[in-house]
Design goal:
By secondary structure, the chain is of the alpha/beta class. It has five helices and 13 strands. Helices cover 24% and strands 25% of the residues.
Length: 279
């Protein structure tokens, strides 16, 4: 019987360890994930542009209060990005163990983000459910433009890009054609949005699209994959650098959690993209 007892104890111990990892250690962690992208349509004048992506902050989800937000901001500034993009879901609606944090309080801290080109946002589905006008006002009062279905020409040294924000696929108009019509024809275009499900509507000539929303599934089980992904395309746009029909998409796994405060092999991350023209 002793071998069976030892096996049972091992299984119980392993289970406790995995639960602790998924519901505490990993959700409470934070990493800066550096990614180098090579894109054929990227302008050589923008080679090496560093873009920090803070997706799905879900401020108020477990381990993601205002103190954590301060840490995220500090680590992002240390990474020295040229541009910071905030692709939505600043607030929480339905995560177990979460505490609602008013967007006004979060925005007061987000104004401490620094980048030579600037800090720009679009709204996520949770922001729209709470109240798009309220979240937008909180951000813009603190100097962070919200580019939902808008375009802005950005420059950095000799680099010039159209930065286009597309509103949320599920809750917003996601007026892709209208937003792209506002761009300057002579400059390449960088798109960012909350939900990557809009990607099939993005024209081939767009250099790069950046999104969040999926949280990378929050849980990845080797051999089984990502069990729950909030996308009508399944795991097609779940995480990372996706190349499809000559187009480039990068989906950040984000920082906060939704529904359950769990992450397993999908750690919270500040995503940093360093983008080059493909040789």
């Amino acid at each position: 019987m002793k071998p069976l007892i030892w096996v049972a104890m091992f299984i119980i111990g392993l289970g406790i360890t995995l639960v602790g990892w998924a519901f505490w250690l990993e959700p409470a962690s934070l990493r800066v994930a550096e990614n180098r992208l090579s894109i054929s349509t990227w302008p050589s004048t923008c080679d090496g542009l560093r873009i920090a992506v803070l997706a799905d902050l879900h401020i108020g989800s477990p381990f993601n209060g205002l103190d954590r937000l301060n840490e995220v901001i500090e680590q992002t500034n240390k990474a020295a990005p040229d541009l910071v993009l905030l692709p939505g879901d600043f607030v929480i609606q339905d995560v177990v163990g979460g505490t609602f944090v008013p967007p006004e309080e979060a925005a007061k801290r987000l104004k401490n983000l620094h980048a030579p080109i600037g800090v720009f946002a679009v709204l996520g589905n949770h922001d729209w459910v709470l109240g798009a006008d309220r979240v937008k006002a909180a951000l813009e009062t603190n100097g962070i433009p919200v580019l939902d279905d808008k375009s802005q020409l950005i420059t950095h040294n000799s680099c010039q890009l159209n930065l286009v924000g597309i509103s949320d696929f599920a809750e917003g108009p996601h007026a892709v054609k209208a937003a792209l019509a506002l761009t300057t024809a002579s400059a390449p275009t960088l798109v960012f949005t909350h939900n990557p499900d809009v990607f099939p509507e993005i024209p081939k000539e767009i250099a790069l699209t950046i999104a969040g929303h999926t949280h990378g599934g929050q849980v990845f089980i080797p051999g089984l994959g990502r069990l729950v992904i909030p996308s009508k395309y399944g795991d097609r746009y779940a995480i990372g650098h996706i190349q499809e029909l000559g187009k480039h998409l990068f989906v950040s796994s984000g920082i906060g959690t939704s529904i359950l405060p769990v992450r397993f092999l999908v750690p919270p991350e500040i995503t940093v993209l360093e983008v080059f023209r493909e040789p």
